[in-house]
Amino acid sequence: MKSFKIAIFPGDGIGVDVTQQAERVLDQAASSSAFQIEKIRIPWGTEYWRSHGQVVPDKFLDVLRPCDAILLGAMGWSAELPDHITLAPLVKIRQAFDQYACVRPAKLYAGVPSVLASKGPDQIDFVVIRENSEGEYVDHGGRFHVGQPDEVAWQTAIHSRRGVERILRFGFQMARTRRKRLTMVTKSNAQRFGYVLWDEILEQLKPQFRDVEADKQHADACLMNLVRWPERFDVIVASNLFGDLLTDLGGLIGGGLGLAPSTNTNPERSYPSMFEPVHGSAPDIAGKGIANPIAAILSVAMMLDHLQEATAAQRIRQAVQQAIADRKCTPDIGGTCTTEQAGTAVVERLGNGS
Ligand code: IPM
Ligand code: MN
């Protein structure tokens, strides 16, 4: 039987709550499919820092490298440790494992209240492809005269031709499997180096993808258009920071962050890819049993798609859809379930696959 080595990395806060349920769903899917899961438990995060003085061990990438995939909950507990320290390993994993394609679908399920008054499931079904390896997230910058009145901080964004071209190609290919429309997010009216390069590369690629209707929008206008015309969007390709901003909005439009899954994909499969909800660790509701596990569960489905177990992935999505339709969900989307009950609802609807 096929076996996948999966790093189970709950992290902090509600990352722990939701990963527990995601893992149950993964187990249930595996038990009725022709693959098995070998789990590597990853205890890193704020707790680990309390006992070890660091958030992750020195050789953390070596622990993850042999895995087929990483299932992450969330990281960060800013009351204990500043987020830029807790989150540095997350960004490092994305970059070191060249997980350059961050795929974040926003799809409103039937039965979930829409935050946009006149838009329902027929209007809300788009996916943001976020460049995940460079851009505004490269660790390049510095501070000078720290703490002085004349202090200066600088932080450089790096956009490489290779990086922009490969993410656009990924987006075009994704558009071909969907409604064949691609919107690239730019800000070349103000940032005349990096985003002019993005604009030029889009123009250079268009002739190779004539079957896809491609255009660009400035980031500020794109945010506004997503709110008023979500139905006009299919595949959106954005830089690292713009993609980050757009996917919190996308998550909300898609029914809330409790439902929004994400990949950090290395399409070449040279390294493990990582799957995680878009939401963070939400310390204010951690351990209270009210966090919505669906974003984490749908991230498991995306992981199984990546592992080429599409049938199991599709079964999970159907079980989620059914649980929501039956109102077996957490209060953030109108149900009364606890985190665990919402997980159970999906597990039960997954059944034994027959
Ligand atoms: C996300 C998160 C991260 C990001 C943070 C936690 C570093 O917001 O995955 O969207 O900015 O990429
Ligand atoms: Mn984010």
Please, could you describe this protein's structure?
- The protein has helices at 14-31, 46-52, 60-64, 83-86, 88-96, 161-176, 194-205, 219-228, 240-253, 294-306, 310-325, 339-350; strands at 2-11, 35-41, 69-74, 101-107, 125-131, 141-144, 152-155, 181-186, 213-218, 235-238, 261-264, 273-277.
- The relative contact order is 0.18.
- The chain has twelve helices and twelve strands.
- It starts with a strand and ends with a helix.
- The radius of gyration is 20 Å and the shape is globular.
- It is an alpha/beta fold and 354 residues long.
- Strands 2-1-3-12-11 form a five-stranded mixed sheet.
Condensed summary:
This protein has 354 residues and is α/β, with parallel strands linked by helices. It is built from 12 helices and 12 strands.
